[in-house]
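Hi support team,

I've been running sequence recovery on a batch of backbones for a student project. Most finish fine, but this one hangs at about 90% for roughly twenty minutes before it completes. I'm not sure whether the input is malformed or the queue is just slow. I've pasted the C-alpha cells below so you can try to reproduce it. Let me know if you need the job ID as well.

Thanks,
M.K.
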C-alpha cells in the first residue's frame, strides 16, 4: 500500500460540480475503498481516504481535514471540461 500526499486547494480553485467532504473524526478516514493507496493531508499527514484507487480521487473530490482544517484535493483541474462533447 502506498501513501499519497494530497495538495492544498489554491485560492479561488473551485471544481465546477464537486463538493467538500468534512472529516468529523480525525481518527477515521472520510473514504474507505478497496484500492492500493492511502491519501493523507498535505499539512499534518492525517489519513483522509484509506485503501482508495486514484481513479476515484479526482479534482472534484475535496476533503477538509478533521485535525488541521486544511482543504485537500488530489489531481489537477482538467484543461478541458469533461462534460463537453468532442467533435
Amino acid at each position: 500500500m502506498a501513501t499519497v500526499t494530497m495538495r492544498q486547494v489554491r485560492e479561488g480553485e473551485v471544481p465546477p460540480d464537486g463538493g467538500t467532504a468534512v472529516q468529523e473524526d480525525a481518527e477515521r478516514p472520510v473514504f474507505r475503498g478497496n484500492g492500493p493507496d492511502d491519501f493523507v493531508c498535505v499539512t499534518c499527514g492525517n489519513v483522509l481516504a484509506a485503501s482508495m484507487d486514484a481513479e476515484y480521487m479526482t479534482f472534484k473530490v475535496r476533503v477538509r481535514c478533521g485535525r488541521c482544517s486544511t482543504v485537500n484535493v488530489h489531481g489537477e483541474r482538467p484543461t478541458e471540461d469533461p462534460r463537453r462533447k468532442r467533435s
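--
Follow-up from support: It reproduced on our side and the slowdown came from queue contention, not your input. The chain has one domain: 2-73. No action needed from you.
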